[in-house]
Amino acid sequence: MNTEGLAKLIRARADSPSRFLVALAGPPASGKSTLAAELAATLGPGARVVPMDGFHYDDTVLEARGQRALKGAPETYDAAGFLHLIRRLRAEDEVAIPIFDRALELSRAAADIVGPDDRILIVEGNYLLLNRDPWRQLAPLFDLTVFLDVTEADLIRRLTDRWRHHGKTDAAAQDWITSNDLPNALTVINGSNKAEITLHGH
Fold this sequence. Notes:
There is one protein chain. By secondary structure, the chain is α/β, with parallel strands linked by helices. It has one domain (3-200): Rossmann fold (3-Layer(aba) Sandwich), CATH 3.40.50.300. The chain has six helices and seven strands, in the order αβαβααββββααβ. The strands form two sheets. The protein has a five-stranded parallel β-sheet, with helices on one face. The protein has a two-stranded antiparallel sheet with strand order 3-4. α1 (3-13) packs across α2.
């Protein structure tokens, strides 16, 4: 299924006055952010992206907890806070959301607003379908779940390109991918509940 096909399905399903929430899950560098942006653009006015990454714990918190090397693992997110946000998005017309600034490596609180005209929300993140508390409490809050399945070779290639773009040397990138990104990717792949739709090699 391509972007247009997925957008057509969402349009057909999102036919009530209430908000329609789509979970777009997958491992790091699987293309979630790109597909989410494409979907929102294809769906047009009333559709927007809500990223999970705004709930990263700050590096100072991770360092105090001895978790800096684990950044991106499930325990390095404010999962309870994210769950609360999704519940608010289902119940409230206007909700402030945090945005993760990758250039600064930190989250900016209340950096954007989901307003009453935003009726279709594309929620994207690694652990939306993770079968682990409190993450597993998210699934019933979504109207459609989508998982991006990408080969390990493609993930490594995309992650290497990502870290080059952010200034890491190839050696530093490979070290971080091996010690951090790939273990997190395997957690997503092996620990997530099955989505309603699985997209391969997006």
